[in-house]
Each structure stands twice: as C-alpha cells, then as structure tokens.
Amino acid sequence: AFMNNHAENAYNAGLDLAGTYAENPELSEEPGRTKEVNSYDGFRIDYFRSVSYVDRYVGKMIEKLEALGHAEDTMVVFTSDHGDMLGEHGLNLKMCFYDAAIKVPLLVHIPGEWDQGERDDRPVMLLDLVPTIAKGFGIETEEALPGIDLTSDAYGYDRPVYSEIVSSFGADVAQYGFENHVRMVKTNAWKYLSKAFGNHELYSVVDDPDENSNLGDDPAYQDVCAQMQELIDEHPGKYRVENVTVVE
C-alpha cells in the first residue's frame, strides 16, 4: 500500500524483515517432545526456511517496483546486521567474530551503475552504505563521512575492516566464559581480536580460513599481533583507505 500511495513521489523506505523466524516445528507424536527443536540441525532447518521467507517478500517488493515503473529509478540495498553460527565451532547465534557470524550479504542496485551485475569480494563495512547512498543521490555532506563510496573510491583487498562487541550475554559469554569487550580488525592476511579480558586471538586468513588455529599466543607472531593492535587503537574515525597502514 505504501508503494502504491507514493508511486508519484520520491521517497525512501525500508523493508525490515528482522524477526522473520520460521514457525515452531511441528509437535511429534510422542507427548512432551518436539522434532529437532534443540539440535543444530533444527536451527539450520529453521534458518533456511527463514531465508526462503525473506527471499519471497523481497521478490514481491521488486515485482511491485517493476509494476509501478520504478525498477530502474530506484536504488535497492539488501543487507543484514549479522550471520548465525548454526553449530560452527560449537556455537549458535551471533556475538562472536567467526566469519559465519560477521559476513553478511550486501546486494546493491544503483540505476546507471553496475547495470549488468557484478560480484565483488573486496571487504566492505556497513559504514560504507551512507557515503555510497549519498553519492548516488547527489547529496553533499558537510563533513567527510566514515566509510567509502563503493562506486567511486578505489580500494583493494588489503583494506582493513573493523567491528566490536560490548556485551554481557549470549554467545560471547559462551565463547569467552565471561563478560567481555572485544574489538576485531581483519585484513586480507590476518584477523585479530583484541579483548579487554583474556588472551588476544590471531588467525591467518589465507592459511586458516576456517579459523581453527589461534596464533595469538605463538611467539613467532607477536610482531603481527602488535601491528594489528595498532590498527585497532588508531581506528576510530579513520575508516578511509588513505588513513590506515596495512599489515602484510
């Protein structure tokens, strides 16, 4: 209804599909028990059912844009805030920095740009969306924004990306055993976790993509840890490519 009512005017809108979880599993014939409800297989089944639900309603939105004649004059962005572990490393949900939890989809349609469709695996952050959208609509900003415009700023695979957890519940406590504040930086070579409590973690992105071997305590890699820690200590407000030094 919203799209029909605003078809003649410029607008911005968000289709928020947060909380689109699959319905509870069907009860088994044996009283007091459910099928797969507490197993990782059950979580994975529900996850894929939820993905199908999201796909269906995003498709309906795109079909409506086409029906209204606005498919080619509308910027469409599809992304998420986090992934889910679904049993990897013995964890579920989010609140950790394994790739299963921090890598999310980012699909962007900008009329006049990328019309043929391109797949790019260079690292990005959600902070990049604001300057990208501002550039797409010709919006001038008074100050330099954190992040980069993905359509015009040249950057490489060695660009660091950052995130952090400040929390006292959920999978982070299950993983670390206590409340913690964890900051993460990832380059094309390394992923490093700096923790307020406990030992830091270092993983080789190239040699150990599944993050099974923590090198944070290995004496041979303390120089790398120190350089990655410098990236974390210096990163606030310095997300642009020219403001960071890459650790090889």
Coarse morphology:
globular
| Continuous helix count | 6
Low-confidence stretches: 24-28, 33-37, 238-248
Biggest sheet strand line-up: 3-4-5-6
Distance between the termini: 52 Å
> What order do the helices and strands follow?
HHEHEHEHEEEH
Residue share in β-strands: 5-15%
Q: How many strands in all?
A: 6
Report the radius of gyration as a whole number of Å. Answer: 21 Å
* Most strands sheet: 4 strands, antiparallel
Please give the share of residues in helix. Answer: 25-40%
Alpha-beta classification: alpha+beta
Overall pLDDT level = 76
Keywords: Hydrolase, Metal-binding
GO molecular function: metal ion binding; sulfuric ester hydrolase activity
Protein name: Sulfatase N-terminal domain-containing protein
Please describe the topology of this protein.
Layout: H1 2-5, H2 40-67, E1 76-79, H3 99-102, E2 106-109, H4 129-136, E3 161-167, H5 171-176, E4 180-186, E5 190-195, E6 201-204, H6 222-234
Antiparallel strand pairs: 1-2, 3-4, 4-5, 5-6
Task: Report on the architecture of this protein.
The protein has 6 helices and 6 strands, in the order H-H-E-H-E-H-E-H-E-E-E-H. The chain has 248 residues and is of the alpha+beta class. It has a domain at 1-68. It has a 4-stranded antiparallel beta sheet with strand order 3-4-5-6. A two-stranded antiparallel sheet has the order 1-2. Helix content is 25%, strand content 13%. Strand 4 (180-186) and strand 5 (190-195) form a beta hairpin.
